[in-house]
Amino acid sequence: MELTKEHFDKVLKGLSIKEDLTGLAKKEDLASLAKSTKEDLRKAVAPLATTRQVQEIVDKAVEELARITNSGFEDVLDRLDVRERMAKMEKKMMKIEQALHMEIEV
User: Fold this and answer.
1) 27-63 pLDDT, tens digit each
2) Residues whose CB is less than 8 angstroms from the CB of residue 93 and which lie 6 or more positions away in sequence, other chains included
3) How far is residue 46's CA from residue 103's CA, in Å, rounded to a whole number?
4) Would you list the DSSP string of 21-72?
5) What is the pLDDT of residue 56?
6) How close are the terminal C-alpha atoms of the chain, in Å?
7) Cβ-contact 96, 102 below 8 angstroms
8) pTM of the model
9) How much of the chain, in percent, has pLDDT values that exceed 90?
10) Which DSSP symbol is given to 15?
């Protein structure tokens, strides 16, 4: 393909000139925008919890749940464990049998 003056002029007409670029943001404008955006983000993120804070909250909740669950099981086991009561009842039954001179079948 041969470059002609007409082709060259056509390509040059499509390019921007200095006056076309006056409305675009300058380096200083972009730097200022970046700084303010960074500060806005910092302010927005500041009240959010950190990973460590979230982990501490979760750990405390897990510990509390484990404690509650464990104490619940201990309470149920205490209620269901009747061995001591049964031993006392057997001793009383033996005393009654001895006092009545008879044997009671269960």
Assistant:
1) 888 888 888 888 888 888 888 888 888 899 999 999 9
2) 104
3) 81
4) GTTSPPHHHHHHHHHHHHHHHHHHHTTSPPHHHHHHHHHHHHHHHHHHHHHH
5) 92
6) 116
7) no
8) 0.38
9) 14
10) S
**Which residue pairs from 98-101 have beta carbons closer than 8 angstroms and sit at least 24 positions apart in sequence?**
none
Structural tokens at position 102 = 């008879």
- Please state, in angstroms and rounded to a whole number, the distance separating the CA atoms of residues 43 and 35: 12
Place of tokens 């509650």: 68
Alpha-carbon gap, residue 35 to 41, rounded angstroms = 10
Kindly report, residue by residue over 69-82, the tens digit of the pLDDT. 888 778 777 778 88
Q: H or E stretch including 20?
A: none
Q: Which two tokens stand for residue 87?
A: 């031993």
Q: Which residues contact 28 (CB under 8 A, 6 or more apart)?
A: none
